[in-house]
Amino acid sequence: MLRPKPNIEKLKPASHGGIDYLELEKLGISPEDVLDFSVSTNPFGPPPGIKEAMEQALVDRYPDSEATELRLLLARKLNVPAGNLLIGSGSTELIRLVATAYFGPGDLVIIPQPTYGEYELAGQLVGARVLSQPMPEETAFQLNVAETMDLVRKHRPKGVFLCNPNNPTGQYLSAEDVREILSVARDSLVILDEAYIAFTESTWVSIDLMGGNNLVILRSMTKDYALAGLRLGYAIAAEPIISVLRRVRPPWNVSSVAQKAAVYALKADGYLEECRIKIKEAKEFLVEGLKGMGLSPLPSQTNFFLVKVGDAAGFRWALFKKGILVRDCTSFGLPDYIRLAPRTLAECQKLVAAIQSLRQN
85: how many CB neighbours lie within 10 A of its CB? Predict the structure, then answer.
């Protein structure tokens, strides 16, 4: 039998939150009957009217590979040249494009962990070596920035992945933290993944750090505007980096429907701020409700947070049988933790009641 490349043969898919449709089919459960707290997307859905906007897409033609209308609109909103932007089919596609363009067999990339599993997978796809920097439970999963800088000085990696705020811990690096890492990583490509920045507290403007030409900022419209079924993200970087990424990007990578939806969402002034207020309220309710049951949610600066429950897989399964899905963090190396992202206030009340019921049995 023809074998794939050795690094591909050893590859294991990264685990993600969200509904496993095969699991639902085996159990005879409809996706509509599941309350999904395992994904950290906007629980209030896309802006009203988006379906009508999507219907305007010309599906009998190939989409614009450059996503010109969307890219120009984003450029104006972010106050950056359009040449500093690349639109992707979700930020995960962009992670793989970065790895394809810049990393190769034997190259070293540094990844603080626990974090999003696709960084390591992207490195493995191209044969790169991964150096994991642990963020231990004893330090509340905070990144030791001085240690990161020492690792960069010692190993001179080809790339450094920083998830900010970090998934699944919700910890958020300061501008000074990232600036210090960039200062010692001048020969490395630093990938700053801001997929969850829209619902993060006390944010700073990372675009201001792009002067060194070795920074790629990734963002996700999937999370912001609840467009997970369409897949939308974008990269912000110096024009030479964007030019390189365009060369390895598949043509027509973002559908016409997705582009129409994104343009409409960006023009929905005030919608995201309304959602931020309601998400913060729901998160506060959920945190206090869990504390009232003796559980201890970890501090988080974004909309999701970790909760130590003991047997995460068992806890997930017990809630799943009640039609509620939470993120088992075993795949992050945290088998005692689940990750929760608030939904509507009414749905958070149902989750608290379900957990209360479990703890009484």
Answer: 21
Beta bridge partners of 192: 162, 217
Q: Are 326 and 297 a contacting pair, CB within 8 Å?
A: no
Residue 16 burial class via C-beta count within 10 angstroms: exposed 0-12, middle 13-18, buried 19 and up: middle
Residue 193's φ and ψ, nearest 5 degrees, are -90, 110
Give the tokens for residue 18. Answer: 């969200």
Residues 151-166: tens digit of each pLDDT: 999 999 999 999 999 9
Pick the more confident residue, 284 or 15: 284
Amino acid at 29: I
User: pTM for the whole thing?
Assistant: 0.95
CA atoms of 245 and 225, how far apart (whole Å): 25
Beta 305-308 vs 233-237: how paired, if at all?
Answer: unpaired
Q: What confidence category does residue 26 fall into, taking pLDDT thresholds of 50, 70 and 90?
A: confident
Question: What is the set of domains in the chain, with CATH numbers?
Answer: 6-45+271-360 (3.90.1150.10), 50-267 (3.40.640.10)
- The amino acid present at 119, given as its one-letter code, is Y
% of residues, the chain, pLDDT over 70: 100
d(CA 158, CA 160) in angstroms, rounded, equals 7
pLDDT at 361 over 80: no
Q: How many other CB atoms are found less than 10 A from the CB of residue 361?
A: 5
C-alpha torsion sign, points 198, 201, 207, 212: negative
Per this entry, what is the length of the chain?
361
Specify the residue for token string 């920083």. 162
Q: What is the DSSP letter of 139?
A: G
Alpha carbons within 13 angstroms on the beta-carbon side of residue 33 total 12
Is 301 in contact with 170 (CB distance < 8 Å)? Answer: yes
To the nearest 10°, report the CA torsion of 161, 211, 68, 218: 20
